[in-house]
Each structure stands twice: as C-alpha cells, then as structure tokens.
C-alpha cells in the first residue's frame, strides 16, 4: 500500500485514482521500500533499470537521464529519533513528464511536508518543480545542520585560547559527524550539478536556474564541512601539542631534581651501610660534617647544571 498518491493538475490536486496519470498534469506516488506492493507497481509502471534503482537496498546520490525520464537519488538530514543527523536519509526518485515515484527507507520529513501541501492543493505544478521543491527542503535542513555544527566548532576554537581548558569531549564525535556528512554531500553536490547540466526535455530554464542554486548550496555545504574538519583537526593538534609540552616540561623538572639528588643519594647510601670501618662512627661531629658535605655537593650540582645551561 502506498504512503500517498496524488494526481497533480494545473487547477487542482486530487488523490490518485485509476491506473493512468492525468492527461494534463502528473501523478506523484510515494512508497516505503518495505512496501509489499512496490515490486508490482514498479513492474507495471517503471522501466527495469529505474525500477532497480528505486528498489536498491543501498544508494548514493546520483542524477542520470534514462529514456524520457530521470533517475535521482538525494540525501537529507536524518530528523528521526532512530539515529543522529549525519545518518542521512535517502530519497529514490523516478521522474517523467507524467509520473513521479519516490521511495524511502526511513521517514523523510521534507516529503511529509510536501504531502501536506498536496493535500492542501499546493503541490508543485510540474515534475521538475517537485524535484526543485524537494531539493530545496533537503538542502535547507542540511545548511541548518552545518551552521549549527559550525557554531559548536567556534566554541571549541575558543577553548584553544585558554591552555588550561581540557580537550572538548565532543570533539571526536563532531569530527566524525562532519566526515560522515561530507561523505554523502560530496556526491550530492555532483548529482545536483549533473542534474542542472542535463539536456532532459523535462528541464525548463526557470527550474534549471532554481536547481543551480541548490547545487551551489551543496557546494558551499561541502566546502564548509571540509573547513570544519580541518578546524577540528587543528583544535585536536593544539591540545595534543599542549599536552606533550606539559608532559615534556614535567619530565624535564623531574630529570633536574634527579640529577641534583643522585650524588646525594649515593653518598647517603654509602654512609648508611652498617658495617665496621665506616669513618666518623665514634666522632660526635661526623653527622654535622656529612650534612655540610651534602649541602656543598647540592650547590656544586646546581652550579654545574647552570654552567651546562640545563637550568
């Protein structure tokens, strides 16, 4: 059973009825990939190659002309409760002059909004206007997500100004999010650019101009994500360098302390052996003399280290 099906005509939008799309207008049919009726519908109404693209379990963004139609796959930000935003949702599409078929795996809120508009009689007037409306909604949510991520990266960079601040705990996850989003948006950018350049008769000049703007937004989103990844890497490198510097300084201080006390430890260890023949065992001034010798050795060790420019 379809999620929804509408006959969209110049003067009105009706729930689809009958097997044939309207003579003046187009039919939009929306399926879930797990729908038992999907295979039969595709066999009856869609050529085999686009049908295989619509029913593929895994997809990547693409835009390919096939006969008199277009095979389109687009990605959008995941707004469902089943995962993070960067687990992007996919929309598979087959677009002709009289038929638009969309297939989803997880709920796509942009398509839900278009469904509400269709129920209100406000559906896009042409198939390519439908594609542009969907691409605009998907890229709008992508832009919002990228901008939110950019603000969080700005806050992380502010922590670099204070060397006492620890490494942000969310840095690794935010960087993984940016990398995963770029993985899908880079081919989406290419798909939208290819769509703008297609010679399909479906593409009117006005729609081409609107889709070119969405392609530009995809380019900007990819460039921003690449910049964010580099900035987060710089934040990570800064904190790593600060930690290494602090560790090196602490190790240096411990080495200087060890260098000063090493000869003192040797002397006290030597005089600490409890055997006959040790000098000063019977002399009352021997302990004071030993302490004075240790003080002189300490001063001498510090002087030598300063001469060597170790301190």
UniProtKB/TrEMBL annotation:
Record keywords, A-Z: Cell inner membrane, Cell membrane, Ion transport, Membrane, Transmembrane, Transmembrane helix, Transport, Zinc
Keyword Transit peptide carried by entry: no
Gene Ontology CC terms, in alphabetical order: plasma membrane
Signal peptide from the UniProt entry: none
Membrane topology: Multi-pass membrane protein
Pfam families in UniProt: CorA
InterPro entries attached to this UniProt entry: CorA_cytoplasmic_dom, CorA_TM1_TM2, MgTranspt_CorA/ZnTranspt_ZntB
Protein location: Cell membrane
A molecular function (GO) term: cobalt ion transmembrane transporter activity
Transmembrane regions listed in the UniProt entry: 252-273, 285-305
UniProt family annotation: Belongs to the CorA metal ion transporter (MIT) (TC 1.A.35) family.
Protein name: Zinc transporter ZntB
Organism field: Tateyamaria omphalii
Taxon lineage: Bacteria, Pseudomonadati, Pseudomonadota, Alphaproteobacteria, Rhodobacterales
